[in-house]
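Hi support team,

I've been running sequence recovery on a batch of backbones for a student project. Most finish fine, but this one hangs at about 90% for roughly twenty minutes before it completes. I'm not sure whether the input is malformed or the queue is just slow. I've pasted the structure tokens below so you can try to reproduce it. Let me know if you need the job ID as well.

Thanks,
M.K.
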């Protein structure tokens, strides 16, 4: 029995590592496709509405809100962008970053009930961030509340100094990503574009393989004990669940990793949408805390943008979470859309491609056509 448990635990750890590698390799591929394009995109407009969709598109392409906000910070610092012009892009990046866990959920598409739970769990994050933007974007445009709050907090913390933090997940998977990159780059005589497509295919294969095995092994290994832990901790104390999501994200330095890890737990039925929702909200805050610690080593503009991101996410939680009627809107929308996508799986692909790519591209092109 002990040998069986050790074997299953080792198996989970192995496939969890493959899962992290697949997520990182996917980001590696998308960065290869679009980092230069994203840089050009970010600097092309001063229209705040267009900036919002540029933030969504740029982050969806390179699969990292951290990379997008880092670019924005650099452009603000160099004078290419003003803090005011950068804020809508940061808002958009908050939506775009959810594409990773939504793609992870597609890994369950061949198993109906798992897919329904997994897809609902992933797009719940989308709907929360979208609702936050719908509420705060017009407020920001009329009052510049986020800009003023960011400048104020910068004046308070500017002289503290900080320390750049490296994600332990990035450290762990870096040798594997470097090995795959070197092996293919040195042995395949293909263009950079084609090489990135191969990276993406390998990432998706590893993602599907790891997700299937994690779900299967975890069901038999931790279902009973996890149920006890979640019953005592997460299901009875939403604030503690939020803090757990925030701390874990602050450690791994990626809300995408936190929310992507929730997907197989939700798919396996270990966590419900309602009980995972506070963890997602905590992850939204956690990803900004590490950015602030890193930004404190830099310039005033960088610190201001980092604080704007923090205030944006905290304000969204304060508006939506305390009121039950508002709190469950993202959950109910996620469950409804997941039900539809389970009946017609092609809708799931339309959802991902439409929300993260087609709609932003269309609106950006329309703005170019009709003028800024």
């Amino acid at each position: 029995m002990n040998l069986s448990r050790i074997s299953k635990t080792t198996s989970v750890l192995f496939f969890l590592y493959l899962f992290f590698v697949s997520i990182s390799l996917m980001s590696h591929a998308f960065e290869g496709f679009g980092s230069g394009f994203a840089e050009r995109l970010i600097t092309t407009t001063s229209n705040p509405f267009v900036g919002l969709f540029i933030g969504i598109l740029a982050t969806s392409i390179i699969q990292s809100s951290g990379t997008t906000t880092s670019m924005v910070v650099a452009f603000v610092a160099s004078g290419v962008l003003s803090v005011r012009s950068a804020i809508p892009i940061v808002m958009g990046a908050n939506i775009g970053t959810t594409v990773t866990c939504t793609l992870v959920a597609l890994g369950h598409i061949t198993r109906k009930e798992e897919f329904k739970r997994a897809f609902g769990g992933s797009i719940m994050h989308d709907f929360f961030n979208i609702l936050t933007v719908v509420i705060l974007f017009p407020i920001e445009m009329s009052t510049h509340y986020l800009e003023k709050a960011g400048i104020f907090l910068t004046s308070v913390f500017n002289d503290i100094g900080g320390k750049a933090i490296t994600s332990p997940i990035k450290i762990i998977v870096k040798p594997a990503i470097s090995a795959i990159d070197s092996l293919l780059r040195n042995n395949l005589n293909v263009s950079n574009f084609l090489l990135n497509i191969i990276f993406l295919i390998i990432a998706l294969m590893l993602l599907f393989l790891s997700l299937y095995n994690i779900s299967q092994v975890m069901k038999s290994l931790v279902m009973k004990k996890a149920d006890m832990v979640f019953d005592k901790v997460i299901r009875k104390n939403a604030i503690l669940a939020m803090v757990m999501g925030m701390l874990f994200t602050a450690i791994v330095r990626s809300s995408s990793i936190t929310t992507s890890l929730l997907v197989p737990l939700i798919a396996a039925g270990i966590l419900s949408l309602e009980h995972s929702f506070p963890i997602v909200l905590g992850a939204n805050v956690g990803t900004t805390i590490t950015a602030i610690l890193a930004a404190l080593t830099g310039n005033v503009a960088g610190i201001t943008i980092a604080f704007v991101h923090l205030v944006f996410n905290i304000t969204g939680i304060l508006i939506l979470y305390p009121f039950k009627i508002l709190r469950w809107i993202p959950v109910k929308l996620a469950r409804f859309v997941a039900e539809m996508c389970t009946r017609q799986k092609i809708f799931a692909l339309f959802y991902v491609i439409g929300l993260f790519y087609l709609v932003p591209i269309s609106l950006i092109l329309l703005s170019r056509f009709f003028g800024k």
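--
Follow-up from support: It reproduced on our side and the slowdown came from queue contention, not your input. The radius of gyration is 20 Å. No action needed from you.
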